[in-house]
Design brief:
Strand content: 5-15%
Shape: globular
Oligomer: single chain
Strand order of the largest sheet: 2-3-1-5-6-7
């Protein structure tokens, strides 16, 4: 056996696994929405069936860092792409947790990071999830900007034919549902938001809306059962898009839309290419070192055999 252990750069290993798996026909789900809408919390809940309520203040242990648990309470500029087992199932699903928007504009750095991630790590999407923190009475400018950007990136018809809306932060305990029934019932909230989307984006077809409270209380049967049931509906919608993956269209409209974005994108692109170049160099070094280790191990085994033969003689 080799006489030494190699130091492994696990970040490179993880990056390689993501690149291979995201292009291997695994369904890809892209979550978009405003900062604080619950995108990351929803990803964590769907991946682990553990709500943010049950794992509060444990952001370092979650696959998708939540802005609500960060010290500055704002989203970061990085896209998080991870392969998970949805609801504990065996088949992997790729979750893409995109950059949140908190105004009518998204920073160039955030958009550039997102475009580079799409170019290298995830070139197609099966399902777009618009995450909305309920209750909602109007269409915020930040959400409109976010949706318009993804329309431009993937094409309007492609986007709207593979989309679902998920309401978060609507507690599904029996008493809370009854309380809302007296003012704005959940089914009315769902219907009205669907109409808002259709009117704002001039869509004829209706958009499916699901209520999934990522902060559900797992100790309460009604909340837990509601989450599992609606997560099942989400999974069925995802299954229906299995053969309908859509790819990025021309980036030019988006790059030309924002001042300075093209320059920022090219800068991030160069950084990514340099990162990949260094990764290849490291991988080559690891491979050479491994070959040397095997050769040394084989040589040691050979010397041992000679020594044994001499001893027997």
């Amino acid at each position: 056996p080799p006489l030494f252990f190699l130091r492994v750069d696990w970040s490179l290993v993880r990056a390689a696994v993501v690149c291979v798996m995201t292009e291997a026909g695994i369904p890809k789900v892209l979550f978009l929405g405003e900062t604080g809408s619950g995108k990351s919390a929803l990803c964590n809940a769907l991946a682990h069936q553990v709500s943010s309520l049950q794992s509060r203040n444990r952001n370092d242990m979650k696959p998708f860092p939540e802005s609500a648990l960060s010290q500055d309470n704002i989203g970061n500029d990085e896209v998080v792409i991870k392969n998970v087992q949805l609801l504990g199932g065996r088949e992997p699903v790729t979750f893409i947790d995109t950059v949140g928007s908190n105004s009518s504009e998204i920073s160039n750095a955030a958009v550039a990071n997102m475009l580079v991630s799409f170019k290298y790590d995830c070139k197609s999407v099966n399902l777009f999830v618009i995450v909305v923190k309920a209750p909602v009475t109007r269409m915020n400018a930040a959400l409109v900007t976010c949706i318009e950007m993804f329309e431009s990136l993937f094409g309007k018809d492609n986007f709207w034919s593979n989309v679902v809306v998920i309401f978060t932060c609507l507690q599904q305990s029996r008493e809370q549902i009854e309380r809302r029934q007296a003012s704005i019932p959940d089914d009315k909230s769902v219907t009205e938001f669907g109409h808002l989307l259709q009117t704002k984006f001039k869509r004829r077809e209706s958009v499916p809306v699901i209520i999934l409270d990522s902060h559900y209380n797992g100790d309460k049967d009604d909340e837990r059962k509601s989450f599992i049931a609606e997560a099942g509906n989400f999974f069925r919608i995802l299954q229906s898009t299995k053969d309908k993956a859509v790819s990025l269209e021309d980036l030019s409209p988006v790059l030309d839309k924002y001042n300075g974005l093209k320059e920022e994108y090219e800068k991030k692109l160069r950084e990514k290419e340099e990162e990949l170049k260094n990764a290849k160099i490291k991988a080559k070094k690891y491979k050479n070192a491994a070959n040397i280790g095997v050769a040394v191990g084989a040589g040691t085994a050979g010397l041992g055999a000679v020594a044994a033969a001499v001893a027997l003689k």
